[in-house]
Amino acid sequence: MNEPAVETWDNELEELFLRVGHRFSRVEPRRRMRDYVSGLLGPVGRKNGWQLAEYAGHVTPDGLQHLLAGARWDADEIRDELQQYVAERLGEEEGVLIIDDTGFVKKGTTSAGVQRQYSGTAGRTENCQIGVFAAYASARGRALVDRELYLPKSWIEDRDRCRAAKIPDERDFRTKGSLAKALVLRALASDLPIAWVTADSAYGQEGRFRRLLEQSGLGYVLAVPKSQFSVGCPRIDWLFAQASDQAWERISCGNGAKGPRVYDWAAIQLPAVVEFDYQDDTQVRRRWALARRSPSRPDEIAYYLAYAQLDTTVEQLVRIAGMRWAIEECFQAAKNECGLDQYEVRRYTGWMRHITLAMLAHAFLAAMAAAATSKGAAETVPAPWSTSPWQRSGGSWQLAVPTAPVRHGSHPALTP
Cα 265–260–135 angle (5° rounding)? Predict the structure, then answer.
């Protein structure tokens, strides 16, 4: 980096340390926190205890290990500071909260929450820990903003094992969906400006998760499995199997590493639900079903349920669907550049502390990148609509669905 860039880096990092420093009541852990985060931001490469200690000029890693295992400070307080920092540096009115989980492959049986379980990161069943995360994304950038460690039933039912791993006694079994709801509620209570939520089908298929978002007034575009049902939608793949060729529109859902990510999309408006979609007898929200088809492999179709304000366009929904991949980019950057997965702690407290400090380091990099560029998120590039035997209304293609609103819990039939 040139001299002005180095000065900007140092000034921003110092401001971040001052922001979170008051959360440490003693000078020594405050200094070790600075050394730890500075080490995570150091040269790309392995970032275990010895490497971080060497980078900080420590003779041994004992001090940094004590920071994670024994020092008195609250990782949740640092998380709160992190969310405020991201809100200031990356926040925008149309901000998107993204929920996903990632795996941390581990050896042995003593690391908190570890067991043989499916890891989407590895793409197979591995001996691993699973963390459920929230990322915040806007046109200015993206960063991880919250985390929870998933604890399988086999752990929660063995209280001695939990105590050995320093898992709080009050921590009960919580599904990944329940953890995701907690992340959303904390984000809503923070300064993060959030208009949308997106997630993959593991979360999108949960009706309680969708209800929480609707009750909170948030828009969403959530991936769902092909067997998903919803109001007016007995099975989503059957719904789109009836779509004519003219119902599919080629749209980019954002730029990827190789340029615009272009797919064929079809969208259907679903019946409104009185309890959630109306205010004082006036409809204010609309429900959608979306399908995304690969142009080169038309048999590969992904499905989504969406919930948005009445004036939302299909292009906007597609853009939000494309934002889900931002959290994968966050995972990759945080692991490769900030040592998110390079920890040597086994206890619950150590995991929460390391992950939080790694997220803080990653948020700093995101803020620096946002300051260095004014380039926004890619806009969708719509192609003209074609003539279709389906009826088009408000930017979507209509099947023969009931037009009257329905009550929550009812399932009006669609005409095949």
Answer: 85
